[in-house]
Amino acid sequence: SLSDRLQQTFKKLRGHGKLTEDDVNEAMREVRMALLEADVNFKVVKNFVKTVKERAIGQDILQTLTPAQVVIKIVDEELTALMGGTQSRIHMSSQPPTIIMMVGLQGAGKTTSAGKLGLSLKQQGKRPLLVADDIYRPAAVKQLEVIGASLGLPVFKMAPGTDAVAIARGAVDYAQSHLNDVIIIDTAGRLQVDERLMNELKDIKGNVHPHEILLVVDAMTGQEAVNVAQSFHNQLGLDGVVMTKLDGDARGGAALSIKAVTGVPIKFVGMGEKLDPLEPFHPDRMASRILGMGDVLSLVEKAQQTFDEAEAKKMAKKLRKDEFTLDDFLAQMQQVKKLGSLENILGMIPGMGGLKKQLAGQDIDLDGKEMRHIEAIIRAMTPKERANISIINGSRRKRIAMGSGTHVQDVNKLLKQFAEMKKMMKKMKKMQGGKKGLPNFG
Ligand code: GDP
Ligand code: MG
């Protein structure tokens, strides 16, 4: 299936750093194939792949994310956007009855969906009326009556031989006098889009002015459903699509293409022959379903939110184990710079409240010039010096000051601050160690 294919592709993305063009190209080659095999419209695929590539190349890989997760997240967001982004609802008229017209080819699921939609509306406290306006097959009226009876919904019909427009108008009158606030007109279908069908539908539209014209399409027909939607939209004007039979082994292509190709959003999906309420269509949930990775996605989001926190925890762990080096100090200062203040970052480290208070009294100014000095000083040190400041003797201090364009006093001051910070950490460790110990950050 499409989701299996995509999962296979994402598994291949490994490593860290920035996503390279090669990584992304390779992954997107496979995503393109998977989408085409799922019968997604080729123009839609082309645009989709282009958009994802542009977004993915050069993306920073956060430490808590794998490259695969980053690409999955982008693919997920773009799939969601492709299907309209947010849920599209039906418009309810401020002046009842709201008139909904179900149109579509024969066998698409109009009659079934009319019943399911009626049930949804009934459950929302509406008083829907089903209208038997498929006048060509006597069985069609009977089918709607059976559905209406089983769902407890009234069904409006007229004598055989009455034309479709007259029935629709009659239904509006009936609804007004019977306080039905929504009417759902079940129209006739054909095996193919033909002129006679279109003219009849246009006639009904012109006479009763529906608030919603919903096209019912069968997901199993793939790109044919997209073509049908395009021609109905061109000729009749559509407000939404009901995509049925998504419970079957539909490849997902129609659902992914229809909005992008026609501009008409999917509003509902049919998930079975059983007369359950019609399900609203949620682009984001559909995208996750296609990716088959709902859990992974929320994980990715969570990871992004907690990235800074995770980094801070790592530091806290090093401090606790007394492995905190000047390199870590530098890294932490860069975090501080990003976050705005030292207080902020200390506030994010569990158990660091005490240190925060002590530092507050020392008036450490970590912005602007001083910050740049500290960075320059640390960068002028050798890795050995950064890892172990006790080896930094007088001549080393001179060299570091020269190398960083600062003075020996600046180097001394930094080393003193750093040593004090470590001392404070040890004190805190002792203070808390006897009782519960520091929180376990690991
Ligand atoms: P219409 O000709 O457009 O009115 O289509 P119908 O409502 O009569 O449905 C045609 C067939 O498709 C019937 O056998 C329905 O039970 C079936 N059907 C409709 N919607 C769905 C669906 O969402 N899933 C499945 N599996 N079958 C459906
Ligand atoms: Mg029907």
From TrEMBL:
GO cellular component terms given for this protein: signal recognition particle
Keyword annotations: Cytoplasm, GTP-binding, Hydrolase, Nucleotide-binding, Ribonucleoprotein, RNA-binding, Signal recognition particle
Cross-referenced InterPro entries: AAA+_ATPase (IPR003593), P-loop_NTPase (IPR027417), Signal_recog_part_SRP54_M_sf (IPR036891), Signal_recog_particl_SRP54_hlx (IPR013822), Signal_recog_particle_SRP54_M (IPR004125), SRP (IPR004780), SRP54 (IPR022941), SRP54_GTPase_dom (IPR000897)
Residues reported in the UniProt entry to bind GTP: 104-111, 186-190, 244-247
Transmembrane segments: none
Domain SRP54-type proteins GTP-binding span(s) in chain numbering: 265-278
Keyword Oxidoreductase tagged: no
Classification via PANTHER family: SIGNAL RECOGNITION PARTICLE 54K PROTEIN SRP54, SIGNAL RECOGNITION PARTICLE SUBUNIT SRP54
Family, per entry: Belongs to the GTP-binding SRP family. SRP54 subfamily.
Subunit structure: Part of the signal recognition particle protein translocation system, which is composed of SRP and FtsY.
Designated name of the protein: Signal recognition particle protein
